[in-house]
Write a structure and sequence with these properties.
There is one protein chain. The protein is mostly helical. It is 75% helix and 0% strand. It is globular, with a radius of gyration of 24 Å. The chain starts with a helix and ends with a helix.
């Protein structure tokens, strides 16, 4: 064995790689288990929850999506998540830019207002928001959940954008102004493309929070045709019995968008989080 190979296969490296492999296995195995469990019948699951299915049974997906109307709940969650992402990115980008670049009267008050959103626990607002929404007639609409989701995501998103914008040299904007570029064009042509890493990070964080949130969806939405995925998952458990293959199939469908988002945008997430945390 050559010296280079012996240097590579040191006890420290072997132990480290073994620990990383074990940790990776514990993270990935639940996803793999959910994947093949969703293809099993209830009888096969009862016999052994860890065994592989005897045959690929895709009828669970048809029953969940069509008969249980899970496709409708999936669509409702998608509408809510997309609406929340658009609202948060738009307002966070504008607010974060102006808080970073301008000093004006009332700036500290606005900054403190957003800071308050980070201090107060999210679910402390559940009862007050329910009472206000009920009095204002804002319950049971497609955009009902997008309102509190956007409000809760805005404080952190604004701070991330503000921190990132501070790292962008002001000379670029000053040069554009000398050339006669308006503030709207500066934001659209210069600042927005440069802020892409942090904005993508915000999109992913907002999507995950809106897609997985349960208590507000359970309290603010009472109509079955407007329920979201997390609320729908609670209906797959009966009082005395649970069809676990059906439940796991619904979980696979619910988790799939989050996994795909991470697979395609994981690099952007790391770049955005590092830039927002270090460059500020």
């Amino acid at each position: 064995m050559s010296k280079s190979i012996r240097r590579y296969f040191t006890p420290y490296r072997l132990i480290t790689n073994l620990l990383v492999f074990i940790f990776s296995f514990t993270c990935l195995f639940p996803l793999v288990w959910m994947g093949y469990t969703s293809l099993k019948t209830n009888q096969e699951y009862t016999q052994s929850s860890l065994a592989l299915p005897e045959a690929l049974n895709f009828s669970n997906y048809y029953n969940v999506l069509v008969q249980a109307n899970f496709g409708m709940y999936f669509t409702n969650s998608a509408i809510t998540a997309i609406t929340t992402m658009v609202v948060v990115v738009l307002f966070a980008f504008i607010a974060g830019y102006f808080l970073s670049r301008y000093r004006f009267k009332g700036r500290s008050l606005i900054y403190g207002f957003f800071m308050l959103g980070l201090v107060v626990p999210t679910y402390a607002w559940l009862l007050p928001i329910f009472i206000q929404f009920k009095q204002l007639g804002l319950l049971d609409h497609y955009w009902t959940l997008a309102l509190p989701y956007s409000a809760f995501a805005l404080p952190m998103s604004v701070f991330l954008v503000e921190s990132f914008v501070k790292s962008i040299p002001t000379e670029m904007e000053e040069a554009a102004m000398i050339e006669g570029c308006s503030i709207i064009n500066i934001l659209r042509i210069i600042i927005f493309p440069l802020c892409t890493p942090i904005l993508v990070t915000i999109l992913i964080l907002v999507f995950n929070n809106s897609w997985n949130e349960l208590p507000f969806g359970l309290v603010l939405i009472n109509l079955d045709e407007l329920r979201t995925v997390p609320v729908a998952l609670t209906m797959f458990t009966g009082t005395y019995t649970v069809d676990y293959p059906y439940l796991v199939t619904a979980l696979v469908i619910a988790v799939l968008p989050v996994v795909l988002f991470y697979v395609f945008f994981s690099k952007r997430i790391m770049e955005g989080m590092t830039a927002g945390a270090v460059k500020g």
